[in-house]
Write a structure and sequence with these properties.
Chain lengths: 257, 379
């Protein structure tokens, strides 16, 4: 069964323990950043940062409120990144994580173009660059541990478990506390469903979530083309042979006359 | 036709191109030892830039003339085009060499370029593309090999290729159909990222049709230039035949483009004054509307100078289409996040170096090989 995480944004206090735990477990260094006018740091995920907390300042009843959004790979159930990878360097594992195998990678960066959430990042500055993104701590999961970020959270913002149980719990929280959450589980349908799900007290678009993500399985978009290839081969070869036969015959008839 | 001694090798233009190749080579050395970030302005929101847009997508489209002319001559038996068949195939060969070299240096780990041949992932368009590049470059090498065999005095080998040329050409036509369209299919996954002015679930076929337009124009363009610089005489009927081909393909292309526009984002989307809308309009005028208007006049189709101009329009217009799909069409969302992309001077120089390589390589071949045989002997 596939593992899953529910992120309940009503619980996050923005302490960034998850950000630090992630860095430590995955042995990431830091990239210097500059002040951008809010507390979100770094301003974007990068090859050294697999997860971060976005600080979103909003107003409620004329009073300022903070909303904190944990940002990382959503580990799609049918990941676009893995489907476009020409060498299966990115792969959806049965355990749930979308993992990266550097020894297969050629560095084409198609995964970066394909990901609807802009998650894969590249080591542009290195001569031997890796694609970098959240691993869902696949190594910890394999060892029976919970992901580093989940483990470090002091407020249980994240709930880790089997996908079906997690989805059930998300629905339960919404029915148990009417009005506490907006009526949407982000990740339930986005990109055909993701292994990481979100509950939010305010509309997701106001927190900067990408609402343009189609709900279809993205790999189907390219498969629609690829599955036509055998037919194209048949048509082109048949048409080619027929035209060749006809034009030769015309030429020979011309000679006889 | 001028003999090999009459084509002057070291003209100032050729020297400039060789200098560009030298500088480009140095930049690529820096790229290999310091990484892509040291020479390009690529970033996490713009993973693909000028090299993919022009060198790879453009280079492959420019090479489309090879399969069209080879198919017309060897399969449809259109003898009229026989005098330009070798040049078209050679031109395509250099186009693919350009694209293949560019993609090898654009990927992060060039020494792993062979992986797709052994690590199959049939769900990936990129894998499909990679296999096509390998197979079609080999096919083009086979199709152009008789020229080299003749030069080396290997008559038997040349005759052998002549015997198998029809199936080889047919294989090439098949690979090109698939490769040109699959380069468009690469962007099918970018739904919601690529502007609906270009995105359409059927737009791989537009890549194929525009490549045919581009290929015919390229062949005509290169035939006119070879005539001017290499003293080779091309019959005007060949050029006007190619122009008619561009016209017919252009009308089909325009009809489909308009249909996609109307059934997709709507006509208003092309006139809302945004950067992408303006780029779309510019592309439409230069790549297809302008050429159709000019080529529908018989006067233009039979005048070498006018044809040269229209061909240049089609070539730059279709190149602009590839840039629009790869860069401008995905710009909006990224710019909103504070990322932007404009190629570094080094990316420009490397692109010019690749193009120079194709031109100089073609010139050397024309000088030393029988690219334009004066009299055609039936095979």
């Amino acid at each position: 069964m596939a593992k899953s995480v529910l992120i309940d944004l009503t619980r996050c206090i923005g302490c960034r323990s998850c950000q630090i735990a992630c860095k430590e477990w995955n042995e990431r260094s830091v990239k210097p950043t500059t002040m951008t006018g809010n507390f979100t740091n770094p301003p974007e995920l990068n090859s050294e940062c697999y997860t971060r907390i976005k600080f979103v300042e909003q107003e409620k009843a004329a009073l300022p409120v903070w909303n904190f959004v944990k940002d990382q790979c959503l580990h799609c159930k049918n990941p676009a990144c893995a489907s476009v990878c020409p060498v299966e360097a990115l792969k959806k594992t049965e355990a749930g994580p979308v993992t990266y195998n550097f020894s297969r990678c050629i560095g084409c960066r198609y995964c970066m173009l394909a990901c609807p959430f802009y998650i894969p990042k590249y080591e542009w500055e290195k001569a031997v660059p890796w694609v970098r993104k959240c691993t869902f701590c696949s190594d910890r999961i394999a060892a029976g541990l919970v992901p580093a970020c989940v483990k470090s959270c002091p407020t249980n913002t994240m709930l880790y478990g089997e996908y079906d149980d997690i989805l059930k719990e998300a629905n339960k929280r919404m029915t148990d506390s009417p009005g506490k959450y907006v009526n949407h589980i982000y990740g339930k349908d986005e990109a055909g469903g993701t292994s990481w799900l979100y509950l939010s007290p305010v509309p997701f678009e106001s927190l900067g979530f990408n609402m343009n993500v189609p709900t279809t399985k993205l790999p189907d978009l390219t498969w629609a083309y690829i599955k036509k290839i055998p037919a194209v081969i048949g048509v082109v070869l048949t048409a080619g042979v027929i035209s060749w036969v006809i034009t030769r015959r015309n030429e020979n008839m011309g000679k006889e006359e | 036709m001028k003999t090999e001694h009459e084509i002057k090798m070291w003209t100032p233009f050729t020297m400039l191109m060789c200098a560009l190749m030298g500088i480009g080579g140095l930049i690529l050395l820096v790229r290999l030892f310091k990484g892509l970030g040291a020479v390009t302005n690529l970033n996490d929101r713009f993973p693909w830039g000028l090299w993919i847009g022009i060198d790879v997508l453009g280079g492959v489209a420019m090479a489309a003339g090879g399969f069209i002319i080879a198919g017309a001559v060897y399969i449809l038996n259109m003898k009229k085009y026989r005098p330009i068949v070798r040049a078209s195939i050679l031109n395509a060969f250099f186009g693919y060499l350009l694209a293949a070299t560019a993609i090898t240096l654009d990927i992060g780990l060039p020494w792993n370029i062979w992986h797709p041949i052994f690590m199959w992932q049939i769900h990936s368009i990129m894998w499909v593309v990679a296999i096509h590049v390998v197979l079609y470059t080999t096919t083009l090498a086979t199709e152009s090999s008789p020229m080299f065999f003749e030069k080396l005095g290997m008559e038997k080998a040349a005759n052998f290729i002549h015997k198998i040329i029809v199936p080889v050409v047919l294989f090439g036509v098949l690979l090109s159909t698939l490769h040109q369209s699959s380069l468009g299919a690469v962007y099918l996954i970018a739904v919601g990222k690529l502007s609906p002015l270009w995105y359409n679930s059927q737009f791989p076929w537009l890549f194929l049709i525009s490549a045919v337009m581009m290929g015919l124009s390229m062949v005509s363009f290169e035939t006119i230039l070879s005539e001017k610089f290499f003293g080779h005489k091309a019959d005007i009927s060949i050029l006007s035949g190619l122009a008619r081909g561009v016209l017919i393909t252009g009308v089909i292309y325009l009809a489909i483009k308009l249909w996609f526009l109307i059934s997709g984002p709507g006509i208003a989307a092309a006139f809302n004054g945004s950067m992408e809308a303006n780029m779309y309009l510019l592309e439409m005028v230069v790549s297809v509307i302008g050429p159709i208007v000019f080529l529908s006049m018989k006067k233009v189709r039979e005048n070498v100078k006018s044809l040269l101009f229209v061909n240049a329009m089609v070539i730059s217009g279709v190149l602009l289409n590839r840039l629009n799909v790869s860069i401008f069409g995905v710009y909006r969302d990224q710019a909103a996040t504070g990322f932007s992309y404009f190629p570094s001077w080094m990316e420009f120089v490397v692109t010019l170096a690749f193009i120079s390589f194709s031109i100089v390589g073609f010139k050397v071949c024309v000088k030393y090989l029988r690219v334009f045989p004066e009299t055609e002997t039936p095979h």
